[in-house]
Amino acid sequence: MVVRIKFLGGVKTVTGTSHLVSTDKSNVLFDAGLFQGRRDEFYRQNTALNFNPRKLNAMILSHAHIDHCGNIPVLLKGGMRCKIYTTSATKDLAKLMLEDSGKIHEEDVKYVNKINRRLGFPPRKPLYTRKEAGLAGKRFYSLTYGEKFCVANNVFVTLMDAGHILGSAVVVMDIREGEENLRIGFAVDLGRKDLALLNNPVIPEGLDYLVIESTYGGRFHIPVDEGKAKLKDAIIRTVNRNGKVLIPAFTLERTQEVLYFLSELFREKAIPFVPVYLDSPLATNITDVFKYNLSYFNPRIQQEIKNGQSPFELLNLTYIRDQKESKALNHDKRPMIIIAGCGMCESGRIVHHLQNNISDSRNTILVVGYMAENTLGKKIVNRVPFVRIFGVEYQLNAEVVIINAFSGHADKDELVDFVKKVNPRRRTFLVHGDIVQIQALYDTLIQEGFNVYIPSKEEELLLN
Ligand SMILES: [Zn+2]
Ligand SMILES: [Zn+2]
Fold first, then answer.
1. pLDDT at position 456, please?
2. What are the structural domains of the chain?
């Protein structure tokens, strides 16, 4: 049997995950993530498809993060006609994420074209529009965890809970020919043990090959309990100062995890009962999907929700979709917690909240996620004395608290432990990480005696 894997993206870097598995009879794509980077590189990388999307027989989607699903509309524009197999929660979440992504591309192009017009350059087109992104919804076909399904000639797929975000999957592909069976597993992205809302990742058995992420291949997370204690202390300090707590929201999963810890702290009466605002239409819509997908939570959360203790239905929690209501919070001087939509603090509603609150030393900016270089979020993390917002300079007087405990990715110990438990018969491929993290994981796995390989972009390998 001849099986090939081509690493199309998300190798030696964290964004743009996509891998193509081919046999003589079929082509199956695993993920179609958006490559994120500077504008020109972003267009070049996301549109340079080095395969024909028309020839795909099936696509499998691991989860709804944009670095895994964000390039699906480009493939559809390029002629992809096959079904996209995923869980039903991912299907609902990916639709929201893709439409939002389309909206961002339209807005970005509008902004760039304003400048281009002034400079006499030709106008650009968005990578895809919101409408084009909406077409992806028609391609999704949902599978339940554990169901083995024939997606293409001789190719069977089983999705297992990855414990990374709601609906995320470790994907197992069985390729059969006569008596032969080749089993490839994809753990991209892999979750953590004992996350607040989700189940622990499932360990696939009998793999010949494993493709695994390396985001935190060389790092160790601090325990979730320490993060909760830090969250509690920051809220108490801020409320005692009569200030506001601003949390730039990472809309999918991290926001819902933060809501869960807030609900626990309120229930334990560990923090004052101040109002909480979730100020983001996307995060609000995503939280709705969480509410309707009870079966994807761990049994403890399912029971709590059945007992009327849903972290998404707090009495002091208000969901804000309307822009006017969002702006009205600027005039409300009570202590409060605002979780607001954020693109690393560069866009979204968090920007006007920062503008209004960043110079007041009573307030706190609580960072719970990754901020990329050269973003306002990163400047806040670095606690620079002055920041520019909408062209105006503001003094950064608010307290800045950074909590790294709420990550949804396995850390080094958990990745190594996963590989040991899976114990692939032939080889492990390390992807989805910057090279320092990948190398750290590689060195440890080699020491442990595993056959490990770090593929390059566009590299094609024969699996046998
Ligand atoms: Zn992810
Ligand atoms: Zn990812």
1. 97
2. 3-219+408-463 (3.60.15.10), 224-402 (3.40.50.10890)
Cα–ligand 2 centroid distance for 66 (angstroms):
8
Please say whether the beta carbons of 273 and 363 come within 8 A.
no
Cα four-point dihedral sign 381, 386, 392, 398: positive
**Strand bridging mode 18-22 / 3-9:** antiparallel
Q: Which of 215, 212, 218, 200 is nearest to 164 (CA)?
A: 200
**Rounded-to-integer distance, Cα 375 and Cα 353, Å:** 16
Tell me how far the alpha carbon of residue 63 lies from the centroid of ligand 1, in angstroms.
Answer: 7
pTM for the full model? 0.94
Over the stretch 191-224, which tens digit does the pLDDT of each residue have?
A: 999 889 999 999 999 999 999 999 999 999 888 8
Residue 73 parent element (H or E): helix 72-77
Which ligand is nearest the CA of 18, by number?
A: 2
CB burial class (10 A; 0-12, 13-18, 19+) of residue 220?
exposed
Ligand nearest to the Cα of 63, by number: 1
Find the 62 Cα to ligand 2 centroid distance in Å. Answer: 9
Do 317 and 276 form a contact (C-beta atoms < 8 A)?
yes
| Residue 256: both structure tokens together | 């819902």
Measure 236 CA to ligand 1 centroid, in angstroms. 31
